[in-house]
Amino acid sequence: MRRPTAFPEVRWGRIRTPRPELTIALAACHRETARSGPSMRAPFTLSGCLHGARLCLPLFPGVMIFASAFGTAAAQKGLTLAQATAMSALVYAGASQMVALELWQEAWSLTTVLSVAAVTGIVNARIVLMGASLQPWLAGAPVRRNALNLFFLTDASWLLGTRYRSHGGADHGVLFGAGLALWIAWTAATVPGYLAGALVPEPRRCGLDLILPIFFSAMLVPLWKGPRLAVPWMVAGLVALIAQALTPGYLFIIAGSLAGALTGALLHERR
Amino acid sequence: MSAADGFLTSAAGPYLAIAAMAAATYLCRVAGVVLMSYVRLTPRITRGLQALPGSIVVATTLPLAVEGGMAAVLGVAVAVMTMSLIRYELAALAAGLGTVALLRAFGF
User: Fold this and answer.
1) Which of A219, A234, A256 marks a domain boundary?
2) Strands A9-11, A14-16: parallel, antiparallel or unpaired by DSSP?
3) A236-261 confidence digits (pLDDT tens)
4) Residue A37 has what pLDDT?
5) Which of A102-106's residues contact partners 24+ apart within 8 Å by CB, and which partners?
6) Which of A132, A225, A240 is facing B59, going by the closest CB pair?
7) Do A160 and A209 lie in a common domain?
8) How many CA atoms lie within 13 A of A181 on its CB side?
């Protein structure tokens, strides 16, 4: 059995020397962990945050060009700089921000506010599934810490965190660091895009409109854990393709992902 | 209703829309974790959760690649191959994007 590690704990650069009774309580938690699987008290360290931020460095050019493209589109739709930046900072979900611009109004009513919120929720519904897959990892951490960590959850940080976790990592700081670093890049790059729209390179020309599918597909390789996953993944892909043909918007992501998870759950039932 | 509409048409309207979008998105971010914390992790649920990340990735990637045409499909294929050979995300990303840009430059 693994001994409790990471004492003393480093949090935001502050060294915390553990009190004896705390150590005993933590050791009990770790024993619990060994039995129940999910980490009862995963660490959250500064070095983890930095590691997470480093992991998403390759994505910075793509993310920043996309945020700039959003800034440009927001300027064309008549948002003020403050509104465009606030949307990037508070919503922080590219596809839904772009869709919202299509629905942007000169004058708002309760109905239009609620409908733009509903469309945003539909476009971002895939994040619900990402959260579900993270739950066993995040379980047991302080609620406020998870609440903050999840604010910065985005496709890329989810995938980097999932990969880190699948290789045995436990530090929640990695997920947080990746999400925060991408948030800074996304929010900051909205401003130059808004101010100098004409200078933003056309994302299509350099293939950057496909950065998410390409990054996602590359990250399938480290997620591959043997042929056991082949059938669920194929079902996910097939159902997603069918759903794409039949349903509007991004519903195919939800349909395919759920079909894949369901297949994974039902396979190997006989053993 | 008309009083609320009058308030919304004022300068606060766009910010209320942004706040509503932010609330909807944050709800999506926490909902999965909160909902699953009420579900007991049976072996079956665990197997489902293990298959979920890859399924999300495939269900996102495949339709977008197919929609993007020949260049996108080949870009994804090159990215996966590069990643399997070198195991370095930046190289895979560069190879994939490079393939797309090159093919598009040639009119695919």
Assistant:
1) A219
2) antiparallel
3) 999 999 999 998 878 898 999 999 99
4) 46
5) A104/A77, A104/A78, A104/A79, A104/B17, A105/B13, A105/B17, A106/A78
6) A240
7) yes
8) 24
Of chain B, the end-to-end C-alpha distance in Å amounts to: 53
CB-based contact B52 A257, cutoff 8 Å: yes
Residue A196 sits at φ, ψ, to 5 deg, of: -130, 60
* A50 and A34 belong to one structural domain: no
CA–CA distance, A82 with A191 (Å, rounded to integer) = 9
Q: Both A82 and A130 in a single domain?
A: yes
Of A205 and A165, the structure prediction assigns the larger pLDDT to: A165
First CA to last CA distance, chain A = 27
Q: Which residues form the domain of A133? A: 45-219
User: Position A120: which residue type?
Assistant: T
From CA A153, how far away is CA B17, in angstroms rounded? 21
Using a CB-CB cut-off of 8 Å, the residues of chain B touching A87 are 18, 21-22
For residue A48, which amino acid is it? Answer: G
Chain A residues inside the 8 Å CB shell of B59: 236-237, 239-240, 252-257, 259-260
Q: How many domains does chain A have?
A: 3
Do residues A74 and A189 share a domain? yes
d(CA B108, CA B101): 10
Joined together, the tokens standing for residue A39 give: 């980490």
What pLDDT was estimated at residue A261?
A: 93
Rounded to an integer, what distance in angstroms lies between the CA atom of residue B67 and that of residue B73?
9
Q: Give residue-wise pLDDT tens across range A36-89.
A: 444 457 899 999 999 999 999 988 888 888 888 889 889 888 899 999 999 999
